[in-house]
Amino acid sequence: xxxxxxxxxxxxxxxxxxxxxxxxxxxxxxxxxxxxxxxxxxxxxxxxxxxxxxxxxxxxxxxxxxxxxxxxxxxxxxxxxxxxxxxxxxxxxxxxxxxxxxxxxxxxxxxxxxxxxxxxxxxxxxxxxxxxxxxxxxxxxxxxxxxxxxxxxxxxxxxxxxxxxxxxxxxxxxxxxxxxxxxxxxxxxxxxxxxxxxxxxxxxxxxxxxxxxxxxxxxxxxxxxxxxxxxxxxxxxxxxxxxxxxxxxxxxxxxxxxxxxxxxxxxxxxxxxxxxxxxxxxxxxxxxxxxxxxxxxxxxxxxxxxxxxxxxxxxxxxxxxxxxxxxxxxxxxxxxxxxxxxxxxxxxxxxxxxxxxxxxxxxxxxxxxxxxxxxxxxxxxxxxxxxxxxxx
Length: 392
Prior knowledge:
Blueprint: H1 2-24, H2 58-75, H3 82-99, E1 107-111, E2 119-122, E3 126-130, H4 131-136, H5 140-155, H6 158-180, H7 184-219, H8 224-236, H9 253-266, H10 273-277, E4 282-286, E5 292-296, E6 299-304, H11 312-327, E7 336-341, E8 344-349, E9 352-358, H12 359-365, H13 369-391
Parallel strand pairs: 1-3
Antiparallel strand pairs: 2-3, 4-5, 5-6, 7-8, 8-9
């Protein structure tokens, strides 16, 4: 019997440690919270379901979350940055409103650098984002995707579900140990428990991603931000172990990216990844040396002069609109071409006219026509190549 008591105690400790790890630590490679907070939202068009009956068990969620939040704030310092905090709360509160769920009072806080590039939610609406992650998120659309995922865990009350599953399987494991009185059952039971909870957790992560897309759309942000962030995270997570077997609480990065993409396509949402990620943004402006410029990420591609009664800014606006449209169609380097017609050059992208450059443009730049055409086409090819690499 002493041996049985020893292994019973070890099993209980093992289960407790596993559940604690599940609820406290995040893997940077997969991000977002673990499986604990739960929701009931995701309606047809906006992607939200009807919330559960108000108050049913939510008071307990809030109590548990509040106690856990106190422990988090003892372990980590809260970052006091007014601008960053204002941005976090504005986006977070818009998403909360979009859920249509009024059962929880949400709190959004930023944790010190030591917390890493992570985000997590506690039951009852306590959401934390690491300051490193705040710096890594490139646009409000990506931040909305992250917060939407965490809010979904709270609204769907995944914490309570995880707790119930853990309690059920731990009793099964303990009963098996007592009935068999075989010490080897302790280790095997713990592993089986971890496997069950990990599988359950992964399903919650998928559910949270689906709900998050609905919240983000309803709040007026681009849901593609969730996809671009996961892709960005996947590329930057080199050297991290992704396959953790029974210790896994998130779908693999590639699997998760595929699931989010599938959900976006199912909703017929255009994959406007440049807007969502804030990368390769086309704009135009008046030039300090005269004329106007068309830029991609603040790097000039075309420098245009007034020509044939057309103001330089009008020309720049038209070229910027065409370039913006073409870049959304994922062009290849081979799609850039030039047709010379006397004293002007027509630059083509995917067989369509993109820009017409003339001698006036060359004079403004202080170069000959061939030189400015070569500069423009080289810049376009470089942009397309970097776009291709960015999407890998």
